[in-house]
């Protein structure tokens, strides 16, 4: 099933190229086009925006786009076209299909992040995560949590036509709480506490911590694990072949 799904994914270049190249393109454009991002900033402890904020934000964006806009469209299209109905006649349970989708798109996000870090380091000098082992763990856990949420969204979305709109409706508020437009530090205290409990908020803060050389907070890891478990279980329970 994994091999078949990989072949199907590769037949849709947009579903691969867009999440693969978008974070890299944004890092290069912003890094080369805005000189101020390459200057040390006192509010970041002397680090540059390129060292923590920008690469962490682009990693979050890549994972969110893949999980909430691409993955739901694929599964709902399968349902609308009768692919899932035919798969229901095989011994494969829904959990296996959902797991394959999660792993497949997890690998895609990992590839996009690796490409962004390597070429971003070479071209504009972005920093490599200083706590690399913690970074790998956070990247895997945070991306998996968002993908599980994307699977749940796909299960609840009535049709493939509605999937892009539903995904966008969920993604933009989550990106806000992840600090995409308003820095976490400038949010009111109540909004910060709410952001800490969202998958994007916990993911973003944990990524920034690993880039700056510190370990993520236990609460951040617990929040990501909780979203992964709850969304994954609900997606499996609510899944319907038709």
Given helix and strand content, the structural type is: mainly alpha
The low-pLDDT segments are none
The percentage helix is over 70%
Q: What's the overall geometry? A: globular
Rg over CA atoms, rounded to whole Å, is 18 Å
* Beta strand %: under 5%
Number of helices: 10
Instruction: Give the terminus-to-terminus CA distance.
Output: 19 Å
Total number of domains: 1
Major β-sheet annotation: none
Q: How many extended strands?
A: 0
Order of helices and strands: HHHHHHHHHH
What would the average pLDDT be, to the nearest integer?
A: 87
What does this structure look like?
- This protein has 242 residues and is mostly helical.
- It has one domain (2-238).
- The protein contains ten helices and no strands.
- It has helices at residues 2-10, 13-33, 53-80, 83-87, 94-123, 132-156, 163-177, 189-196, 199-212, 218-238.
- The model has no long low-confidence stretch (mean pLDDT 87).
């Amino acid at each position: 099933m994994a091999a078949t799904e990989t072949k199907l994914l590769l037949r849709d270049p947009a579903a691969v190229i867009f999440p693969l190249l978008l974070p890299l393109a944004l890092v290069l454009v912003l890094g080369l086009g805005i000189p101020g991002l390459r200057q040390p900033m006192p509010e970041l402890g002397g680090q540059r925006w390129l060292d923590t904020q920008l690469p962490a934000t682009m990693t979050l964006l890549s994972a969110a786009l893949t999980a909430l806009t691409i993955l739901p469209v694929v599964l709902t299209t399968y349902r609308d076209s009768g692919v899932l109905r035919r798969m229901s006649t095989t011994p494969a349970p829904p959990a296996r299909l959902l797991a394959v989708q999660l792993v497949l798109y997890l690998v895609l996000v990992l590839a996009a992040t690796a490409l962004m870090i390597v070429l971003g380091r070479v071209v504009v000098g972005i920093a490599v995560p200083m706590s690399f082992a913690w970074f790998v763990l956070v990247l895997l856990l945070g991306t998996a949590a968002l993908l599980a949420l994307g699977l749940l969204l796909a299960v609840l979305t009535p049709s493939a036509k509605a999937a892009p709109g539903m995904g966008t409706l969920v993604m933009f508020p989550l990106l806000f709480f992840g600090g995409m437009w308003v820095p976490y530090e400038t949010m009111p205290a109540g909004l910060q506490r709410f952001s800490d409990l969202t998958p994007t908020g916990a993911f973003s803060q944990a990524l920034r911590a690993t880039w700056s050389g510190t370990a993520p907070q236990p609460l951040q890891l617990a929040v990501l694990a909780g979203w992964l478990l709850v969304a994954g279980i609900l997606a499996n329970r609510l899944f319907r072949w038709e």
